[in-house]
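tool=predict chain=A
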Amino acid sequence: EILNINQKIEEYKNKLQKVETAIQGDSLSPERLKELSQLKDDLHKAIQYHQDLLKVSNERLQSYFSSFKLTKSDEGRKCNAYAQEDKNWYPAHINRVNSENNTAEVTFLGYKTTRVLPFSYTQVLVPPEELYEGQYVDALLEDGKWHPSTVELVKDSVTVRLSRWGHQHTLPFDCIRLNSDSKKRPLVERDVLEIPESMKILPNDPENVRNKKKRKLKALKKDWKQRQMQKESQEYVSHWKAFKQKNLKGLKKQSQFKSPETIEGKIGVSNSGKGPSAPVKRVKYTDYFNQFAQ
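tool=predict ok
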């Protein structure tokens, strides 16, 4: 946007210079002189307008970009980096920080593209203040995308399980962000549905409040039931995998119809004790009936 405004200003200045040169000519009619003077005033207004627009854009750009300065301790962290090609922000990994010229070398996640950007084009990801097991969050993976996940373990790092595929990942804290479901209490770990006090129907509740609580309670039970079914399905799959690995351990993968390797199981092989099977003579059906007719 700023580049386009600068181009417009340069274009108008070039036109203004040509108009001023034309006005200084001797052989101009009054009508032509009036027309050029009007064009000169319009060009002055256009230049002033785009200069004001450029000032506003620069102020908005300064507030849009970060004024935070990176340090050597930020190397290895995740950040949002600004791509000048399409004017968008993308998750990236900070490789090196150069404090002398205020630049950082980053690699965009999912694209494996490395760029050297000024500090203002980087925004370090801030980890959540508090995380607990069972919390719903978004996890940043190497593909550069945020995936809905559930926190399973919080220690020096965070272990999450993806909601869609069920894969488990151990990530640093800055690869975790809260989402709209982060404040919801997890229902997967409970075998008994706990109804919040705010959803319990009281005797003195009006009819509209009763209906509202009933709708919320119905949605809560439906969500809990679906999560219980998902939990049972995952347990069934894990039990089956454990049973399969336990019972197939040490067994050879071979057909049950395979002939034995002893001499009795070999046919048509040298020193097997048996000769090859005799070929069956093929006759036409007419010859077969003729032998009975004779």
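Residues 197-233 form one domain. Strands lie at 78-83, 88-98, 103-108, 113-118, 122-124, 136-140, 146-154, 158-162, 168-171, 176-178.
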